[in-house]
Write a structure and sequence with these properties.
The chain is an alpha+beta fold. The protein folds into 2 domains: 36 residues; 98 residues, no CATH class. The protein is 17% helix and 30% strand. It is built from 1 helix and 8 strands; from the N terminus they run H-E-E-E-E-E-E-E-E. Strands 1, 2, 3, 4, 5, 6, 7 and 8 form an 8-stranded antiparallel beta sheet that branches. It is elongated, with a radius of gyration of 26 Å.
Length: 154
Amino acid sequence: MTRWRHITAERRAGLTNLAIAAAVAILIWFSAWLWRDPPQSPGHQRDLTETTVDWECTNGHQYQARGAYGIGRCPVCDAEAYLYIRYRCPEHGEIGALLWREKDPKGGSTIAGIRFEGRQWVLAPSRIVCPQCGRTLRTVRPDLYHADTKGKGG
């Protein structure tokens, strides 16, 4: 306590206030960091129609073409074609899925339906889960769309 004896009461109060203000500032920064919006990958910032995506038709033909909303048509057999996405399950590994996207009112897009091999269509899922164990799936490639938009900010 002898160190602090020469400091006046006003200066001690000022230092205490400074320490409290610094702690509050750190707390505010941490809470803003904690509740921030998750970062979006560049693929989710581009429009689906500006990118090349993987497709698969109902007859099994796989190809790459420009993205589109709704259901596409196969260039080989003219059957219905859907976006083909690979997901990873922590327990079961990679799983392929067909899906179609629709534009949402905010200008983005949402998954309107998804179907895993040998399963029924699930319409407008709130989250994508493994059909075997129910665990949340992640895309194998975090960027849903191919990076073919050089010069367009991608």
